[in-house]
Amino acid sequence: MLTPAALGLVARLQRELGPIREELLAARVARQARLDEGQLPDFLPETREVRQDLTWTVAPPPTDLSDRRVEITGPVDRKMIINALNSGASVFMADFEDANSPTWANCLEGQSNLIDAVERTISLQSGDKSYRLDEKSATLVVRPRGWHLPEKHVLIDGNPVSASLFDFGLFVFHCGHRLLERGSGPYLYLPKLESHLEARLWNRACQLAEDHLGMSRGTIRATVLIETVLAAFEMEEILYELRERSTGLNAGRWDYMFSIIKKFRDNPQFILPDRGSVVMTVPFMRAYTELLVKTCHRRGAHAIGGMAAFVPSRRDAALNQLALERVREDKVREVGDGFDGTWVAHPDLVPVARQVFDEVLGERPNQVDRRRDEVEVTAGQLLDVAATPGEITDAGVRLNVSVGIQYLGSWLQGIGAAAINNLMEDAATAEISRSQIWQWVHHHKISSEQVRAIQAEVIEELGDAYREAAALFTEVSLAPEFVPFMTVPAYRLLP
Questions:
Q1: Which residues belong to CATH 3.20.20.360 in the chain?
Q2: Model pLDDT, residue 315
Q3: CA distances for 62 relative to 58, 220, 230, 348, angstroms
Q4: Any catalytic annotation for residue 221?
Q5: Does 426 participate in catalysis according to the annotation?
């Protein structure tokens, strides 16, 4: 993986773009200070012309990304890659971010696994089971880590390289031309953007890599996850910055909830009830998804729906039936709203989601032509968190503490996607759990003593192996000042 030529591209990306990244991260801190003072976000007046200009659209999708009706996501371990590519989904998002515990081994082995997947030589022998690619497999899309994360194992001029540029650089270097030779291309999912300027930086990274590797402009294609509330106010601008390579936007529902809590943590109008009460039909989530579909279709881009995180049980048929019906209802809502595709976390959910989208799309690859011009979403509607029904319950507090500790325990052991209570938990869902605890304690809805008492009970149930995870959970959920990302202090504990 770490050939001089590959590291040469990573170093060039870091040296040319690293200073801009640092400026944008500093801008995040400054923006947070203004939010803490009570300022609320709005659509940007300085980019009004971009939003009002109806003449621009994004580039047409490549052939193997024109139909994205079901996308499956997961970490970059060998078994997951094979099963996901064979799942019957249209797209597999290989995830170096929320579903990946970024140990050095996971990150490097993940890149190696991607080469084998692209070469179609990937296989695995596990006990009596053999895994290899079927003749037909999903289109590969890769999600690098977010702008806020470093890769501590690689220093450029004495400083840790951006994890985003490291993951991206190795992937496009090793797999870019290989994918093009097979009629596909280097396709990305870009996480956790907070502004169109951060999208502009990604576009510059793609242009620099294309020039460095002798690819034509627009070869690298990118879908952006709208998973921060600030990005929701700049969706058109984000598409515009990436217009020569954009393949759409995705409604990253779990990180979006986390972002609402994080950005407005001091404002009592933004206190959320139990995590399970914040469904996609509550007013602020409804406004966000409606605006996303309208924005995408207005510009010829795909709108991809949110995650179905249910993990089917092999032992509880009644639970499966109820959960699968809820998954179906969620996907019926999405396709009815105009989404062109949706996400699932488990191969058993692919047929459920596909059937729903097949019933509406038929032989059409997507429904981008459904413009949704009737949708009008205001800043007030995007921020109407106070209208969310539900309460903060003892059961909700206990669930957040238990899930947070269990997930961090898995993460510290190198497992970034963990099935807990029949749900696939990743860093985004764990962020909701710990940030809700912080918010509820901060606003005196619960006490820190109550949290510590539950934590002690959880450790007793789980065992001493989870004490380090519990200590980390306490650090990020009971700290006097809000920790922006729990994965930053957690990363220091990884090999």
A1: 4-381
A2: 82
A3: 12, 10, 29, 27
A4: no
A5: yes
For the segment 400-420, the average pLDDT, to the nearest whole number, is: 96
CATH 1.20.1220.12 in the chain: give the residue spans: 392-491
DSSP letters of 283-352?
Answer: HHHHHHHHHHHHHHHHTT--EEEEEE-B---SS-HHHHHHHHHHHHHHHHHHHHHT-SEEEESSGGGHHH
Catalytic site residue from 64, 98, 330, 426: 426
CB 401 within 8 A of CB 353: no
Catalytic pick among 69, 78, 143, 265 = 143
- Quick check: 229 and 292 in contact, CB under 8 A? no
Per residue in 448-481, pLDDT (tens digit) is 999 999 999 999 999 999 999 999 999 999 999 9
Closest to 450 in 3D by CA, of 420, 474, 423, 466: 474
State the Cα–Cα distance between residues 55 and 101, nearest whole angstrom. 43
Rg (CA), the chain: 21
Fold of 4-381: TIM Barrel (3.20.20)
151 Cβ contact partners less than 8 Å away, ≥ 6 residues apart: 102, 107, 145, 160, 161, 162, 163, 166, 167
Distance CA 342, CA 261 (A): 24
Tokens 């139990």 map to which residue? 274
Token pair of 475, please?
Answer: 């650090």
Q: Which residue type is seen at 385?
A: V
Residue pair 397/450 in contact (Cβ under 8 Å)? The answer is yes
Q: How far is Cα 179 from Cα 461, in angstroms, rounded to an integer? A: 47
Whole-angstrom CA distances from 342 to 189, 205, 206, 308, 465 are 14, 27, 25, 8, 36
Average pLDDT over residues 290-302: 98
> Which band of pLDDT confidence, cut at 50, 70 and 90, is reported for residue 317?
confident
User: Alpha carbon of 493 to those of 38, 152, 250, 425, 490: distances in Å?
Assistant: 35, 11, 31, 20, 6
pLDDT digits (tens, 9 = 90+) for 368-406: 999 999 999 999 999 999 999 999 999 999 999 999 999
Give the CATH fold of the 392-491 domain: Malate Synthase G; Chain: A; Domain 4 (1.20.1220)
Q: Which percentage of the chain shows pLDDT scores above 70?
A: 100
* pLDDT for the residue 44: 98
Q: For residue 422, what pLDDT is reported?
A: 87
For the entire predicted model, the pTM comes to: 0.96
The rounded Cα 355 to chain-centroid distance in angstroms is: 24
The string of pLDDT tens digits covering residues 18-35 is 999 999 999 999 999 999
